[in-house]
Design brief:
The chain is mainly alpha-helical and 135 residues long. 56% of the residues lie in helices and 0% in strands.
Length: 135
């Protein structure tokens, strides 16, 4: 079996079918810059109910169920329920898949914002795209 390694922004451009100059390529570190960024992306790009979106945003930022419950002023059991519902709604099996799904979503959001000036695309279920959890 032959393995081809593609590195750098130009390699990702090739895979995604997009051409960005190196300085304009979306920086994945920005995807988790703040709660506002994560929530804005999830709001613009999904049809998740508000509480499920708020819980997923905080899970992506590595908050515990206790931390999320204190932040949102709901019980830990409610946090687990909202998280489970969101995973089911999105077709995800756990936090690792949530991370990969979100990075794809954020990347598409950045492309939309660059192309149209705002995010207008809506995605529901997890779709295989640029980043993959499969080896």
């Amino acid at each position: 079996m032959e393995t081809v390694a593609i590195s750098g922004a130009s390699g990702l451009d090739l895979l995604a079918g997009h051409s960005f100059p190196q300085s304009q390529f979306p920086n994945p570190a920005d995807a988790l810059r703040s709660l506002d960024v994560v929530e804005s992306c999830l709001t613009a790009m999904t049809d998740l109910p508000r509480r499920e979106m708020e819980v997923c945003a905080r899970v992506l930022l590595c908050q515990t169920a206790l931390g999320i419950s204190l932040s949102l002023e709901i019980s830990e059991e409610s946090v687990r329920t909202y998280r489970t519902r969101a995973y089911r709604r999105l077709g995800l099996g756990g936090v690792r898949e949530l991370w990969m799904w979100y990075l794809n979503l954020w990347y598409l959001w950045q492309l939309d914002m660059r192309a149209m000036g705002s995010a207008s695309r809506t995605l529901g279920a997890c779709e295989p795209t640029l980043f993959s959890t499969r080896n």
